[in-house]
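hey
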């Protein structure tokens, strides 16, 4: 019995090590070797859904769509989440006619587990916007690694940057149309993931006009527990910082002269935890330490 347990432990550790190697290849941009490694793990352990999903993503990133769909369907068999419908790695598959079946299956499984959402059609459109919003992120990461290694931006990054800008512009047009048609998306209406779509798109706009326009809806959804209070706080503080005012929740950061991050000035910093707690955020000291390794030293008070 002891030998059997040791053997199982060895096989699990070996599988995890191989999967990790696949992740390393992917991070370096070596997708072909990532595919080979993930595939080797799949042959040993067909029930490792995470590895199979990573294999599908690697195939999608190399536009090998048939293989990507094959392994994606296997990996999602028991997955009830909607993440795959917003995963930018799978963006190359989203225009294929087979993608609709993936969307419908995941939405059906999600609702069977979590209860029906009021507008699944709206949810699908918002998830597509999130996927588009994050599209080219992998390629951007590769360009960043290239720059760190060679000290200059690779020539192939510029068309990617332009495409990213075009996608951002069309996403904002689409999100405005959808909000006008269906109203502001809430958790009960479209699910928690899809409801974040307008927040992502609005956050990428350069000016503050649209963030100011939609802030009341974002705040309302937060207070009614129908939207992300974390994102509301980030957007509220961003508006204040970008209009030369003190932030409220401590969500926006800047670099000091010695290139360390610190929060922008906060209005009434002694009471920031009280304001954060009111919308369900963790204490400022805990948040800043976790987020930017900053030591918050101002003692907190409570107003009655």
């Amino acid at each position: 019995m002891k030998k059997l347990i040791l053997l199982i432990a060895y096989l699990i550790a070996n599988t995890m090590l191989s999967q990790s190697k696949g992740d390393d290849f992917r991070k370096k941009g070596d997708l072909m070797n990532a595919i080979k490694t993930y595939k080797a793990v799949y042959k040993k352990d067909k029930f490792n859904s995470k590895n199979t999903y990573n294999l599908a993503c690697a195939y999608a990133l190399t536009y090998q769509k048939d293989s990507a769909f094959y392994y994606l369907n296997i990996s999602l068999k028991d997955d009830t989440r909607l993440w795959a419908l917003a995963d930018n790695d799978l963006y190359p598959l989203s225009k294929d006619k087979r993608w609709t079946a993936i969307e419908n299956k995941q939405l059906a499984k999600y609702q069977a587990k979590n209860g029906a959402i009021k507008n699944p059609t709206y949810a699908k459109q918002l998830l597509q916007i999130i996927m588009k919003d994050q599209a080219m992120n992998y390629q951007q990461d590769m360009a960043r690694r290239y720059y760190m290694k060679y000290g200059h931006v690779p020539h192939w990054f510029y068309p990617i940057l332009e495409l990213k800008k075009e996608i951002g512009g069309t996403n904002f047009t689409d999100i405005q149309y959808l909000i006008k048609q269906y109203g502001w998306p809430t958790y009960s209406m479209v699910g928690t993931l899809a409801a974040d779509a307008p927040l992502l798109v609005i956050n990428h706009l350069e000016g503050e006009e649209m963030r100011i326009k939609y802030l009341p809806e974002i705040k309302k959804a937060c207070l009614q527990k129908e939207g992300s209070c974390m994102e509301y706080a980030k957007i509220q503080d961003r508006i204040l910082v970008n209009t030369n005012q003190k932030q409220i929740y401590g969500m926006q950061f800047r670099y000091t002269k010695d290139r360390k991050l610190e929060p922008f000035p906060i209005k009434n910093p002694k009471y920031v935890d009280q304001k954060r707690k009111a919308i369900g955020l963790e204490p400022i000291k805990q948040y800043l330490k976790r987020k930017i390794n900053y030591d918050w030293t101002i003692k907190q008070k409570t107003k009655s």
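Confidence is low (pLDDT under 50) at residues 10-17. The longest strand covers residues 253-255.
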